[in-house]
Amino acid sequence: MDDPGDVPDGRPIVWLNCAASLDGRIALADGRRAQFSSPEDLVRVHRMRARADAILVGVGTVILDDPSLRVHWELLGERPGRDPTRVIVDASGRTPETARVLDGSTPTIVATSLRSRRTFPASVRTIVAGAETVEFPVLLPRLFELGIRRLMIEGGATVLASVVRARLFDRFTVYYAPVVVGGSTAPPIIAGRESRSAEDEVRLELTGLERVGEGLVATYVPRRASASDA
Ligand SMILES: NC(=O)c1ccc[n+]([C@@H]2O[C@H](COP(=O)([O-])OP(=O)(O)OC[C@H]3O[C@@H](n4cnc5c(N)ncnc54)[C@H](OP(=O)(O)O)[C@@H]3O)[C@@H](O)[C@H]2O)c1
């Protein structure tokens, strides 16, 4: 995970990553897990994970995919090193007790809200970062205080929406697989609130385009406001 030019003040560098179909879906119907990444893209993703201090996902992803959020060092041809901290955004305490992220194998943080009464195993650190929901402008400085300088956010659609809407990211990489999913229930890259006018859109700048295996990786940064935006 190389650093973008400008290092943000008081929060980690935030790099968003997801794998999508050509029609911009990140899973199959009703959120069923999909494997869109090619073998070459998996190497890219695990290299990113290995360079991150922490990997964050939402509780929706934990429930639907049950990811381990660990680095698959064997894909990198490297001896196992330090795994990044796992961060789960779970405002109401819905993480299943049997979830792999609670297996105690690597440092894990559950970011939650005042409305959660849930307790977690002693190995899990909890951070209250909001009253009703997890507020990223509150959470990110708390993670920074814990020494997390590089944060990779892998999804899902609702978490990506919050972070992108708040413009709290420095780089967004999307692997587009040559696959079409279709339908109306497969989650898009970004869910969340509707855009009803141009002012609601979030503008990005394309900074890279690379063929990776049978797909392509597009890299975006938030677009800075220019005089022509006024
Ligand atoms: N292809 C890929 O790269 C990829 C990667 C990851 C996930 N996925 C897919 O994404 C889908 C899951 O996405 P999802 O949208 O259902 O769930 P999600 O984004 O993983 O988690 C969303 C949940 O997080 C909690 N949350 C708390 N505070 C939040 C905040 N400020 N902003 C956003 N969420 C907050 C909310 O639940 P509470 O209110 O209960 O806390 C919310 O429902 C699955 O189908 C999975 O397969 C795909």
Describe the structure.
The structure is a single chain. By secondary structure, this protein is α/β, with parallel strands linked by helices. The chain has a domain of 158 residues: Dihydrofolate Reductase, subunit A (3-Layer(aba) Sandwich), CATH 3.40.430. It is built from five helices and nine strands. The protein has a nine-stranded mixed sheet with strand order 5-4-3-2-6-1-7-9-8. The radius of gyration is 17 Å and the shape is globular. Bound molecules: NADP nicotinamide-adenine-dinucleotide phosphate (NAP). NADP nicotinamide-adenine-dinucleotide phosphate binds next to strand 1, strand 2, helix 2, strand 6 and helix 5.
Annotated CATH homologous superfamily of the domain at 13-78 and 138-229: Dihydrofolate Reductase, subunit A
Shape: globular
Report low-confidence residues grouped into runs of 5 or more.
none
The first-to-last residue Cα distance is 33 Å
Question: Overall pLDDT, averaged?
Answer: 94
Strand order of the largest sheet: 5-4-3-2-6-1-7-9-8
Radius of gyration, whole Å: 17 Å
Summarize the main sheet. 9 strands, mixed
Number of strands: 9
Bound molecules: NADP nicotinamide-adenine-dinucleotide phosphate
What is the N-to-C succession of helices and strands? EHEHHEEEHEHEEE
Amount of helix: 10-25%
